[in-house]
Structure formats: C-alpha cells, structure tokens
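Example S7 (structure tokens).
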C-alpha cells in the first residue's frame, strides 16, 4: 500500500488506463488532430499549475490564478490591440504587452503573498477574495467585451513559442525544487513553518516568493492562452479553475504542504487534460464534467490524507 500511494508513476499509469478505457468508446480520441489539440491544451495549463504547486508546497493555496490570467489578458490586450490600444500599430506593442502581462502577474501575486504573511490572513480567504476582485476588475475594465485585433507578432506565440515557454518553465521549476536552496526552503516552510523559522529559513519571504511565482506563471499562461485565442478576454481561464487544483493534487502535491514535484504535476496535468478531453468528446454536459472533476479532486484529497498516514505524517 505504501508503494502504491507514494509511487511517482501512479498518476502516469492512471492516465494510460484512462486512455485505454476511453479509446474503444471514442474512436476519434487517438487521431493525430485530437492528440495535437490535447497537447496544446496541456501546455498553458502546465505552466499555471506549476505556479500553483509552489504555493501548495508551502501549505497555502492560490484560488486567484484564473482571475489573474483574465486580468493579465485584458492588460496586454489594452496595450497592444490595433484599434485603440495604447501602443496600437507600434512595433513595440507585442513585447510591451507581454512585459505588462508578466508584470501584472507578479504584482497580483505579491498582493496575495503580502496579505497572507504580513496581514496574517488565511490563504483560502485571501485568494478567494482576490479572485473575485481581480476577476470583477477585468470585467469592469472591458465592460464584459472581448478585445481582438491583436498584433500578428503576438499571436504567433501560440505555436512553437508555447512549447518553448512550457519546457523552460518546467525545467527551471524542476531544478529549483530539486536542487535550489529556494526549493529546500519551500519544502521546509510547508512541513513545519515554526521549526523552519527557528532554523533560519525566511518563512515570510519564501511564502511571498511562492505567491509571486504563482502570479508570474499565471501571467505567462495568460500570454499563451491569449495568443492562442487571438483575443484578450475578461473571463479567460474560468473553465480551468478546477483543472489547476486537480492537476496539482492528483500529481502528488499535498494540500497540507511539504510535498510536491514538477514531474508529478505534469503527470497530473496529463491526466486532467485527458479526462477533460474524453468527457467532452463523449458529449457530456458542462455541469456533468464539473461533477466528475469535483469527484476526482475529492478522491485525490482522500488519497493525499491516506498517503500522509502511511508516511507517518500527522494530519492536522
């Protein structure tokens, strides 16, 4: 039982089993077109979920990532759109918009981290509140309207650029967690913040940095999603809210903090993306898909608790 619950290959095996189960039921699932679509759906999701993983490792949670994606999308579109953008028609429009989107993500992540550490507020309440505020602000800025006419130079990021960004983010995050001192501090903070503080770990700074990374990667995912849709949207990312949390937790990142890997998160992203793709191809309603995803998250949380008991960890 211990080996099953803690195996790094469990989620990958589940994804393979899911594919084998659905393949006879959905003839089109194994086509080149569908597999390509699955890959391009996975890449931005992987970027934002890696950021969520950093926060979960510290024992926190960031519910605002999808709202950050939406607000960053609006921010970039307002800078570069060809109709009334601040830099409409300029060669610098696309680079400036990307910079603005990433900067917005960093600043919004800093807001979350500051509220959690300096104001002593629970992460769930902080990020639930900022999710509503950031999302509402994005809608207010655009009056609920999408912003199109984005520069072709920006839209071209939806191709090989998306793959490049995802690979760089995954490799950098994996190195940080496995070999960097910041990674060790993240795990220490999640396992026992008080003991870590006594041992010299800058717990508050590490927590703020984790939320900042989450905001930055949500901004990066916003760049990728916006380029793919060729539209700045105030509701961009709403449909992946459950996917982000589910992929991280299914991939072995503990809701109690102190445990998680990039490899596990990527496996979780694969499983969630494949499940979502399969359910949609079956023609199930959006609400039934949400129900299934909710059940999957619950199952993952129960497995997380079981794994902690098997590992001899105290569940608070």
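Recovered sequence:
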């Amino acid at each position: 039982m211990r080996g099953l619950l803690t195996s790094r290959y469990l989620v990958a095996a589940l994804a393979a089993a899911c594919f084998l189960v659905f393949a006879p039921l959905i003839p089109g699932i194994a086509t080149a077109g569908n597999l390509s679509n699955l890959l391009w759906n996975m890449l931005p999701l992987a970027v934002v979920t890696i950021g969520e993983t950093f926060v979960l490792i510290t024992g926190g949670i960031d519910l605002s990532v999808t709202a950050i994606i939406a607000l960053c999308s609006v921010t970039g579109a307002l800078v570069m759109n060809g109709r009334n953008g601040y830099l409409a028609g300029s060669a610098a429009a696309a680079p400036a918009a990307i910079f603005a989107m990433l900067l917005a993500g960093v600043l919004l992540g800093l807001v979350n981290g500051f509220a959690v550490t300096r104001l002593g507020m629970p992460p769930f309440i902080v990020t639930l509140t900022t999710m509503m505020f950031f999302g509402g602000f994005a809608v207010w800025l655009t009056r609920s309207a999408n912003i199109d006419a984005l520069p072709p130079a920006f839209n071209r990021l939806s191709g090989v650029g998306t793959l490049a960004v995802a690979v760089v983010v995954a490799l950098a995050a994996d190195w940080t967690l496995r070999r960097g001192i910041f990674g060790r501090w993240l795990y220490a903070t999640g396992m026992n913040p008080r003991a870590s503080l006594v041992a010299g770990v800058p717990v508050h700074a590490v927590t703020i940095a984790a939320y900042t990374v989450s905001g930055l990667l949500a901004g990066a995912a916003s760049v990728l999603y916006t380029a793919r849709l060729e539209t700045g949207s105030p509701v961009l990312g709403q449909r992946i809210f459950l996917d982000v949390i589910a992929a991280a937790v299914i991939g072995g990142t503990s809701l109690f903090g102190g445990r998680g890997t990039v490899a596990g998160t990527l496996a979780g992203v694969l499983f969630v993306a494949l499940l979502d793709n399969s359910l949609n191809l079956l023609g199930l309603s959006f609400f039934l898909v949400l129900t299934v995803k909710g059940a999957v998250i619950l199952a993952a949380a129960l497995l997380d608790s079981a794994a902690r008991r098997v590992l001899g960890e105290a569940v608070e």
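Notes on this example. The CA atoms of residues 31 and 211 lie 38 Å apart.
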